[in-house]
């Protein structure tokens, strides 16, 4: 069974980050120039998206308890407001696969875990080994209340699941799930797969995190995916639906391609989180560069389809000894009293640690930076 310290590059995204990022990449995608936002438009928005003030410690850490959903890692934050409190949905890794948990807070710093809300499914199901719920349809306004929106009277989330045990083993699929209370979810069959007839070469290696935005009656599913080649490239694309049944991939996919060789995003443009700010759309994402660093950035758009990268690193890796000394990536954003809170997955090297039969040589949890 694959674990964070045992998986090889062919099957492990985490190992790819640490061992394969420096390899030469002939597959970097280039695009012709698109209509740009004006410098004044860009700076006005960027001034509201910067979060230079890091909280020094993890706000959500692994439990290190054998059998717990978060035994080895806590990953993929999604922050929202509900019932008078803040909530942080997150994905735990227990050595077998992903399971989804939730935590509650009054101040966005001190969190109490409240357990698993989406667990692995029965044998033979799409979630047999992994159940990673990464997004719930929410109020689109970044500086709004940060609350969830009901769709047809229910909460609507998106999940992804890998077909084998281990750390992200095999090509994941993306699907929808529904809930009345945020604690019990009904999982639909996948709606997007790497094997779909209309899947492009950029996504044929497998799909990853999705972000679902409802705008004027249309659902926009942003997701990152990888190529089949080794070492692979991860980029972000879009599929659109008006009925949540039929999904049409955008003709221009990937809408957020990797940069040219030597850019901060020349390997990955991953884990989209899309919100609206000052009349524009902001797509927060994480970059991976060929220097092996994973960091959060943002792109801007007027129409959800044409994106302009800011070129800025919003959350950078920390110094040796800090909680994000290895990676500062996988963004989730929410505001409180006009102050932006940028949650991210922080990773730092650590002495090898065993939890039952599984081992890891890093600490992976959730951190936050503020405006």
Which key features would you list for this structure?
disordered N terminus; 4% helix; 8-stranded mixed sheet; 2 helices; Tachylectin-2, Chain A; globular; mainly beta
Question: Can you put this structure into words, describing what you see?
Answer:
By secondary structure, this protein is mainly beta. The protein has a domain at 37-51 and 74-309: Tachylectin-2, Chain A, CATH 2.115.10. Helix content is 4%, strand content 44%. It has two helices and 21 strands. It has helices spanning 13-20, 39-46; strands at 53-54, 73-82, 85-93, 98-105, 112-118, 132-136, 150-151, 154-161, 173-179, 185-192, 206-215, 218-226, 234-241, 248-249, 268-277, 280-288, 294-301, 308-309, 327-336, 339-355, 358-370. The strands form four sheets. Strands 1, 15, 16, 17, 18, 19, 20 and 21 form an eight-stranded mixed β-sheet that branches. Strands 6, 7, 8, 9 and 10 form a five-stranded antiparallel β-sheet that branches. A four-stranded antiparallel β-sheet has the order 2-3-4-5, with no helix packed on it. The longest helix has 8 residues, at 13-20. The chain is globular and about 55 Å long. The N and C termini lie far apart (41 Å). The model is unreliable at 1-11 and 18-34 (pLDDT under 50).
């Amino acid at each position: 069974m694959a674990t964070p310290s045992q998986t090889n590059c062919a099957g492990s995204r985490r190992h790819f980050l640490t061992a394969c990022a420096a390899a030469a990449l002939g597959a970097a995608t280039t695009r012709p120039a698109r209509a740009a936002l004006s410098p004044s438009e860009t700076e006005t928005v960027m001034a509201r998206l910067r979060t230079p003030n890091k909280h020094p410690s993890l706000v959500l850490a692994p439990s290190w308890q054998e059998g717990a959903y978060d035994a080895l890692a806590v990953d993929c934050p999604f922050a929202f407001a509900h019932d008078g409190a803040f909530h942080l949905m997150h994905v735990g890794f227990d050595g077998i696969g992903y399971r989804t948990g939730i935590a509650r807070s009054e101040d966005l710093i001190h969190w109490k875990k409240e357990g698993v809300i989406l667990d692995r499914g029965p044998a033979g199901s799409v979630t047999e080994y992994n159940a990673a719920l990464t997004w719930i349809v929410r109020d689109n306004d970044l500086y709004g209340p940060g609350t969830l929106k009901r769709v047809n009277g229910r909460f609507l989330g998106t999940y992804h699941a890998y077909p084998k045990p281990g750390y992200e083993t095999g090509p994941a699929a993306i699907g929808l799930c529904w809930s009345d209370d945020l604690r019990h979810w009904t999982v639909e069959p996948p709606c997007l797969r790497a094997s779909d007839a209309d899947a492009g070469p950029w996504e044929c290696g497998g799909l990853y995190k999705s972000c679902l935005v409802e705008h004027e009656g249309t659902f926009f599913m942003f997701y990152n995916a990888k190529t089949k080649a080794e070492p692979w490239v991860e980029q972000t694309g879009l599929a659109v639906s008006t009925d949540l049944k039929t999904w049409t991939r955008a003709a221009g996919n990937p809408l957020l391609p990797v940069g040219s060789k030597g850019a901060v995003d020349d390997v990955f443009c991953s884990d989209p989180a899309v919100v609206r700010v000052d009349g524009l759309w902001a797509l927060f994402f994480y970059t991976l560069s060929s220097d092996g660093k994973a960091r959060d950035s943002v792109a801007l758009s007027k129409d959800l389809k044409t994106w302009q990268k800011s070129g800025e690193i919003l959350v950078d890796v920390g110094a040796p000894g800090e909680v994000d000394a290895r990676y500062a990536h996988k963004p989730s954003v929410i505001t409180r009293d006009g102050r932006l809170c940028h949650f991210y997955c922080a990773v730092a090297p650590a002495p090898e640690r065993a939890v039952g039969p599984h081992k890891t040589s890093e600490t992976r949890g959730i951190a936050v930076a503020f405006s």
